[in-house]
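Journal club side-thread
Mid-discussion, someone asked how the predicted structure for our own chain would compare to the paper's figures. Pasting it here so we can look after the session.
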Amino acid sequence: MDNKSRRSFALGVSVTILGLMLTIFASGCATPAPHAASVRFITDNNDMLRDYFTRRGVAVKTSADGLLNESENTPASRDAILRYVSFLRQWMDASVANMANVSTTRDAQGDPNPYRRQVIRLSDTGEFTLDHDSSPPRLVLDLKHPDARADGYVAMPDIDLHTEMTNAMTAAKDYELAQAILAKLDPHLALAWPTPIPFQKP
């Protein structure tokens, strides 16, 4: 896949994810329902949400098969789901940025310095930070590239489009689940587009 095709592919995925996020937001604008005393959710073999609740110290009851989970409606659970929604938005943004810069070989100052993949790291307490991958760049043979070295190789960002697309779609799917849970815990919170909680500085 050449650079032009990579950029087109990344743009297409970004538009798809944006459309999904807008659909989720629109679906959340229904008439609020009464607050639920507790909320049940199915993780579908994806333990991210359950794991995040545990990191935030929120009790979750899990069925014998490990799929059905239930959490009480408490200030702690509402805070946890809001933070989780914010985390997912940031994860999607990072994945989209990575895909958009898959062929970026220069930094903001215009110097030859390949884009560093953005990664989101979670602490044991559920706090998340924005970091950059320390992996070395990929060396691609491209004699015609303006940033090619004397040996013809170009230092490209160490980004795998398939991985980034999978991450973005996983985050989008969990975002929809989290919004549905939030609507049950507190419908008024679900009506507003969640404001991202600022990253902790690494």
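Post-session note: The longest helix spans residues 75-100.
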